[in-house]
Every structure is written in structure tokens, then in C-alpha cells.
Amino acid sequence: MLRFTLAAAAATLAFSTLAEAKVTITCLTNAGHLTRQHEPLMAEFNAMQDEIVVEYAAPAKNYGDTHLKLFRGSATNTLPDCAFQAYNQLPSLARALAERGQIVDMKSLMDAEGEGWTEANYSEAMLDLGRVDGAQYGMPFNASVIQWYYNADLFREAGLDPDNFPTDWDGLFDAAQKIDALGDDILPMFMWLINGDDWGFQTLILQQGGRMMSDDGQSVAFDENGHALEAMKMAKRLHDEGGLRTDLDRETQFAAFTEGRMGLWGLSPAGARNMQERVGEQFDLRSHPFTVWNDEDGKLPTGGNAAIITTQDPEKIAAAWEYIKFVTGPRGQQVTAEITGYLPTNRKVLGTDYMGDFYAANPYYATPVMQYDRAGPWSGYPGTQSEKIWREQASTIRAVMEGELSPEEGATQLKSIAVDLMKR
């Protein structure tokens, strides 16, 4: 298996010629991220130096489409020079590309930066998000763990204290019921669960101290110690006690929340800026760390993506590394966090030179930082059927929430779906 671990030598060789001619690299991301994040970062990087030109390929539709485009590019030798791959899909992609020598292990590039550089910029937990089989195939770019957004005005109307957010799920459901009683046009809560991908389901597993997959990523582990059953019991409670609707799409619920007709929303910090812009001055919008069952061992799956290098040209590897250092560095992460609300993946961003003062003055945006130590893996399944697995699992979870299946039946089905489709 071919891996690029000669990075220091390659970087030295490549940059000896950079001053003579510009190196152009092409990266791939998805349409939802291109305009809002990557174009400002690309423009700033291209303007700050004269040796490298960064361009972006036609964007993928979403993370799933990015995954397919990269697999197709691997088969046809038309891969971009770098790309931004979702954490849960990185393992299967990296293993496939590594077999063909089409992905760079960036560990040696990091080592070439000098002693202490890695530790000063990245925590081990963040770096783990981009590691596959011990290789640093991805550098963490976007990171998000689920958090609560809430309408403090509705809390007050319901007789709740918005300055004392519920500390456990029982308290949360009590608050939701009091908000629900405010009127037929008021929705108590929404949580990312059956809308979109399996990030919400994995939240229900990891917050118990559970894990989705075995250490080698080849076997289902979310049923260990009854975690799948407890997750299905919680899904049922979210519906019955929390008022979580199964018949409204995400856009409808987003409109209800931003118009002031919903009390609580469990979602990614990536939408913090958009949420604030939509709400404006309509109500007192706040955010709060997510509720976990196991305070000692509970984690939250980290959504987002890692930057990968897929060129085999040493000169372009060196250029791509310079760009990745920028976008995952303190300045790049400051830009991204301020634009979106994502959790910064670089430690230096928390200093006063970058965002320390901003977070102190804007607690609404500081919630992701408060959950830094909760960041756990967003796992993927081996093979190419991850999206199909989730579609079938989401139907099962919906059936449990609506009472068509018992939590026990749902937990059994969730495992069977994954085990059966992983084989394909």
C-alpha cells in the first residue's frame, strides 16, 4: 500500500521551485459550503502570497455527492488535488484511496513543521477525527457537536427561567410541555433525528457513553450494553413527552423556530449565524450545551469535514499543505467560525489574538467551545451503503416514535439493517 510519508523532502523540493512559477491546485467541496466559507478563505489565501493559486472544482451537492465524486475520480484518475470529506465517510474513502496511492498521510508534513507545532495548534481529539488506521489522512476543518438553541421569551411566558436551562432530560421534557401549553400554534421542540443524516441517532448513542462501531470500524457496536434500546426509548420520549413532530420537514420547523413559534431546537452550531440573521430582534435567542445522560463518559458525534490531499504530484502536495495549514490554522478557523458558528478546530483561535474576546462578548456563539471536550467520532459504515442504511434506519426510528414498533423491536431492526447492508 503506497502512502506519502516523504513529505518533508517533498515539501523542500517543491518549494524550491515555487518562487519560479505559481502552482495551481484545485479543491472540491459541496455547494452548501463553497460560497459561505471556502470562497472567502480562497480569496484571502490567494491574496496573501504569490506562489500558490487555489481554485475550486464545480461543487458537489452535499457530503454524499462529494463521497461519490471522489470515488469516481479515484477510478478514472481525475481526483482533485485536495477535498473536504465528511468525517463519517472518511474511513471508507481513505482506505480505498490508500490502496491506490491516491491520498496523503499528513503526519510527516506535520512533523516537518517543527517540534511543538502540532500540539500548539490541534488537540488529540480533533486530530483523531481525521485519522484512519493510524494515518493522518484528514486535517479537521469544520467541526460541530449538537447544541440547543432556545427562545428565552417563550421560556418566560411558560413560567421558566431562561437563565437556568434544564440540567437533565426530565427537566427538558418538563420545559417542553410547559411551552407546548402556551397555545396550539406553539411547537415545543425539534431535534435533528430523522431529518437529514444519522447525526442525531449517533448523538443518542454516544451521549450514553456508547460507540457506533468496533475499534477496527468493521462491526456494529451501537447495541452494546443496551445503548440502542435506550436510544429508542429516548426517541419515543422525544415524541411523546417532548412533542417532537415526525410529520414536519426541517424547513417547516426552522421557519417555526425563527418566527418565534418554537421553544427549543437541537441543531449544529454551523447554523448559528444564519439562525441569528433570520431571528433578528424578534425574540431573545440563546444557545446552550446539549443534554447528555452520562456526564462522565458521554460524547457527542462531531459533524463536519476534514481536508484531504489527493494529488500525487510532490509540488502540488506541498502547495495543498500550505493551503490546508491556512484553512485549519487560527486565521482560517477564525474566518469560518465567525461566518458560520462552527467549533474552531485550532486551539490558537481561543486566544485573545483571535476569538477569545469575541466569545467573551458573545455567549450565544461561545456554546461550541464549552463542548470542546464532548467532541466524539461521527462514525461511518464500511462499504458503499451508508446512505441506504440510514434511510432504512430512519424509517425504523420514525415507526418507534409513532408507536408502530416497540423500542425493543426498533433496536433489533436497527442492528439488522446495518449488519445486512454493510456486507454489500
Global Rg: 22 Å
Q: Which spans of ≥5 residues are poorly predicted at pLDDT below 50?
A: 1-10, 12-19
Q: Roughly what fraction of the amino acids lie in strands? A: 5-15%
Helix content: 40-55%
Shape by Cα distribution? globular
Average pLDDT, to the nearest integer?
92
How far is it from the N-terminal to the C-terminal residue, by CA?
23 Å
- List the strand order in the largest sheet: 2-1-3-12-6
Annotation field: number of helices: 19
How many β strands by DSSP? Answer: 13
Largest sheet: 5 strands, mixed
Helix-strand makeup class: alpha/beta
Keywords:
424 residues; alpha/beta; five-stranded mixed sheet; four-stranded mixed sheet; 19 helices; disordered N terminus
Question: What is this structure's SSE topology?
Answer:
Elements: H1 7-18, E1 23-28, H2 31-48, E2 52-56, H3 63-76, E3 82-86, H4 90-99, H5 107-111, H6 117-121, H7 124-128, E4 131-132, E5 135-136, E6 139-144, E7 147-151, H8 152-157, H9 169-180, E8 187-191, H10 199-206, H11 227-240, H12 250-258, E9 262-267, H13 272-279, E10 285-289, E11 300-301, E12 303-309, H14 314-327, H15 330-340, H16 356-361, H17 363-370, E13 375-376, H18 386-401, H19 407-422
Parallel strand pairs: 1-2, 1-3, 8-9, 11-13
Antiparallel strand pairs: 3-12, 4-5, 6-12, 7-9, 7-10
